[in-house]
Amino acid sequence: MITYEQFKKIFPQTMETSDEESKCLKLQLADSFAYLDINILSSRERELLTTIFPSKPIPDIFFNLPLGYYRILYFKADSINELSEILRSLVPDIFRQEKNIYLEEYTAENLSVSEYEEIFEAIKNDFGLDFTYYIGNFSQPKDLPDIYLKESEIFGKGYENIQDFAVTLLRNPLIENNLIMANLDFRLNQDGETKEIISALYQSKANQNQAAKSLFIHRNTLLQKIKKIERKYGIKLDATGVVIYQALLNN
């Protein structure tokens, strides 16, 4: 998504704020809003701009973030306040919250997708709360507005994590055009050890003993490395996950 400075080079009349919003076209950019006087735009320009830029507002929690990686946790619940209190006591790495979404900063202690799923099921059973969720993928701050729009759409379709969604993408020849998968693909391809482990698991049909032997490491060492990968990238390296991410790396 384009930044304010980039947009202003195209439309020099762009303003960061406006006292007369009713007379302006308000557009959501990657790092802020942009305001353009409607009177200086042709009908064609107004139509194009409103089509290109999202009407869904981007939450403020995505702006002015320190460098690092973050993932978004999405929830739908009747008792969102009660759920929020429980989550904050159980998940220490939540960085910011706005309504039904939570921003989690990447640390060495993040919960894996599998661990989150276990916690959420325990909350449902122990507290009697009914809610749905989507566990996002770690991304850089500059990508979060676009990631949010894509993941919100995925969550709306009933998926719970990137792996569930990726299964459908494997049948789609346009997988490389999906922002979320492209982002994950780029990060995985920068990590030689992770690629080697995924490949070993794929070749062994997810048999961890055989994979460990092919990597010349102890099985417990492999399990520790798998857990670290799952936490770092927000993925699951079970039998299905191994096929998905090997296919992604080969794509």
List the helices and strands and how they pair.
Blueprint (H helix, E strand, L loop, with lengths): L3 H7 L13 E5 L4 E5 L5 H10 L17 E8 L2 H11 L3 E5 L2 E5 L7 H15 L3 E5 L8 H13 L5 H8 L9 H11 L2 H12 L4 H8 L3 H15 L5 H12 L1
Antiparallel strand pairs: 1-2, 3-5, 3-6, 4-5
Q: How would you characterize this protein structure?
A:
It is a single chain. The mean pLDDT is 85. The protein is 49% helix and 13% strand. The protein has 251 residues and is an alpha+beta fold. The strands form 2 sheets. The protein has a 4-stranded antiparallel beta sheet with strand order 4-5-3-6, sandwiched between helices. Strands 1-2 form a two-stranded antiparallel ribbon. It is globular and about 70 Å long.
Summarize the structure.
With 251 residues, the protein is α+β, with helices and mostly antiparallel strands.
- Strands, count: 6
Low-pLDDT segments: none
From the helix content, strand content and strand pairing, which structural class follows? alpha+beta
Q: Could you give a short account of the major beta sheet? A: 4 strands, antiparallel
Compute the separation of the termini in Å. 24 Å
Radius of gyration: 21 Å
Would you list the SSEs in sequence order as H and E? HEEHEHEEHEHHHHHHH
SS field, number of helical segments:
11
In which order are the strands of the major sheet placed?
4-5-3-6
Mean pLDDT: 85
Shape: globular
What percent strand? 5-15%
**Helix content range:** 40-55%
